[in-house]
Amino acid sequence: MPALRIGIDGRAFGSPAAGVRRYVTELVPALLRGSERLELVALGGDPATVPAGLAHVPEPWHPPTNLGWVSVGLPRAAARGRVDVIHAPAYTAPLRSRLPVVLTIHDVSYALHPEWYPYRRDRARRLFYRRSARMAAHVLTVSEFSRGEIAAAYDIPRGRITVTPHGVPRMFAAGEAGAARPLPPGVTSPFVLHVGDLHERRNLTFLLEALVAARWRLDGTGLTLVLAGVDRGVGAALGMRAAAAGMPEAVVRLGPIADDELRPLYGAAAALVYPSRYEGFGLPLLEAMASGTPVIASRAASIPEVVGEAGVLLDPDDAEAWTRALVRVVSDPDECARLRQRGLARAAGFTWAEAARITAGVYRQVARPAMTEERS
């Protein structure tokens, strides 16, 4: 088969969204290592963030907004790069393009729960996302849960949506180098860890209440909740609630941290705690399982699909169940060992090689009609 030339929106490599950055920086090398004949080109973005092995097309002139880039700059860069397919890895894509567009949508929480996203121009943003989804030749997403949500939210046939689950980044594999790095200042054992933006949908106020109750039952262990991620407006309230309970030290907010700092946190945590009400995938769940860290998470959205029977899945509103689970993960080493082994086995089934294989197949699927039309 002839080589396909795929243009990937280069801005995704420097995206402020950690999940988007992880997706493209792991997927692209896996595509380059795969058996499919692909030539990958980064369209725009900062050349310093583009992985080795990719050609780079500088950004042509475009209106100085995200809409201006996606609508004007990205198609122009694709034309200059002479690509066969455009891959837009993060929700937005050209609304008009002579080339087939593959769009990755990680979840549609912004469409189904706009109350969680108080952006000044949120309505326009949601419309842009919807139009991008409906205009794309094919949509990629990261779980069967999200596939159903996207189909329902945008009235897209499920056959035009393909699931490519995340894989485990090598740096989070159990036993990898870096585990001996010191913990960040202020973090002491025992602690449970939450990784991800501090966001309303993550249900962290509920989690803190369960942790306070668990501390009373554990009597003197000093269990803390360590939060690693960007504060989206709930961090201060968590601190005040902990102080009001007489336990100001119970919450440790680290803010966003680098991967080399995150790896030892997984290694030392009693558990990853993930009481989220809505996730398209939940990459920290996979990172934790691959690191040998027990997982306690909500039985909601895509989370059971990722965790399976490898973790403790609970109702996101059952405070007593969460309290008991926190107590057990700190006090029962046998249970922790069982969860560790189950998590390692579960994580082994998620690979970027498989995600790349499926993605490459979609590229060929959407390119074939366009190439046939050009030859005719």
Question: What can you tell me about this protein's structure?
Answer:
The chain is α/β, with parallel strands linked by helices and 376 residues long. It has two domains: 4-167 and 351-375, Rossmann fold; 170-347, 3-Layer(aba) Sandwich (Rossmann fold). It contains 13 helices and 13 strands. The strands form two sheets. Strands 3-2-1-4-5-6-7 form a seven-stranded parallel sheet, sandwiched between helices. It has a six-stranded parallel sheet with strand order 10-9-8-11-12-13, sandwiched between helices. Helix 6 links the parallel strand 8 and strand 9 (224-228). The protein is elongated. It starts with a strand and ends with a helix. The model has no long low-confidence stretch (mean pLDDT 92).
Summarize the structure.
With 376 residues, the protein is of the alpha/beta class. It is built from 13 helices and 13 strands. Helix 9 packs across helix 12 (333-347).
CATH class wording of the largest domain: Alpha Beta
Average pLDDT across residues?
Answer: 92
Q: What order do the helices and strands follow?
A: EHEEHEEHHEHEEHEHEHEHEHEHHH
Separation of the first and last Cα atoms: 18 Å
Biggest sheet character: 7 strands, parallel
Shape: elongated
Radius of gyration, in angstroms, nearest whole number: 22 Å
Query: How does the helix and strand content classify structurally?
Result: alpha/beta
Instruction: Quote the beta fraction.
Output: 5-15%
Q: Give the CATH topology of the largest domain.
A: Rossmann fold
Strand order of the largest sheet: 3-2-1-4-5-6-7
DSSP summary, beta strand count: 13
Number of domains: 2
CATH architecture assignment name of the largest domain: 3-Layer(aba) Sandwich
Fourth-level CATH superfamily of the largest domain: Glycogen Phosphorylase B
